[in-house]
Write the structure tokens for this entry.
Amino acid sequence: MKRAFQKLIFGLVLGLFLLPGTALAARVKDIASLEGVRDNQLVGYGLVIGLNGTGDSAGTQFTVQSLVNMMERLGVTVDRSKVKVNNVAAVIVTSELPPFARAGSNIDVLVSSVGDAKSLAGGTLLMTPLKGPDGNVYAVAQGPLIVGSLAFGGKAAKVQTNHPTVGRIPGGALVEKEVRYVFGDREELTYRLRESDFTTISRMSQAINRRFGAQIATSLDGGTLQVAVPEHFRSRTVDFVAALESLEVITDTPAKIVVNERTGTIVMGEEVRLSTIGVSHGNLNLVISESAQISQPNPLSEGQTVAVPETAIQVSEDEGEIVVLKAGVSIGEVAGALNAIGATPRDLIAIFQAIKAAGALHAELVIL
């Protein structure tokens, strides 16, 4: 049943490959980003309390030191040598400050243990300042953790699901300082492609110029596009950016085959082409089995009982069928032809490597 299901899925995917090729357009906002409009990473060090004996051990000195310092700031004098921290865990809190975030906005945070805590489930993060690369505090995080995991057990056995030492707090940080970015009356904008490509940047420039009826877009290189803001949009820069982002561009990608030999995964781009070549692939199977025959002496004889080993060797080789792939074949034809000779994903990896070595594969072969 499982094999039949796998064949059905492969047939559906193959059918999609064999459909007539149609160039699909993508929006500008999906392939390029506006220079200066970006996230900013934040990080902070804090404490998670309220753990049920799953916190850091007493040997984690920085947790003890942090807890004592916090208590002293709150006006409580404690003896450092008598502090137990099995209900407390030292953590690193990370987050990303999105563009145009204003003071009072909420952002998500990720909390990760840095000590030897066993689990953060049920814990609460104490007030933790989140700093940017410049050392300034941009947000403050606090609140109960959502771990989505559990871990329990004894000395001989342990049960664990997911990852219990990392948790999230949705909306757990409050933005305290803004990163100012004002469009104002800008005269030009700069867009950067997420995947640099000369063909795509050229098509993007043509689409913008065609939409606004003027030569306002100029390609600086394979990944950068400069756009002059039209005069009638100078006071409405946001409207102009919205109009740009909705434009559709037919993207272009290099021919590439990515294979992961560990998992047997193969991903091929639609631009992959082959020169005329013949492919034959057969598997050699060698099975060696050993058994022992017991030899016993005759009654009243002085012989000994011995074990006589016997070895059986079977050799079988799958029949190889030669398939000729003509020059310029598409990805669908390649998949169909190789499927016809019964090639498995791991067989395909070996076949593509051999075709590349023969100089007949007009694509980049990336092996992970």
In short: Residues 1-22 have pLDDT under 50 and may be disordered. The radius of gyration is 32 Å.
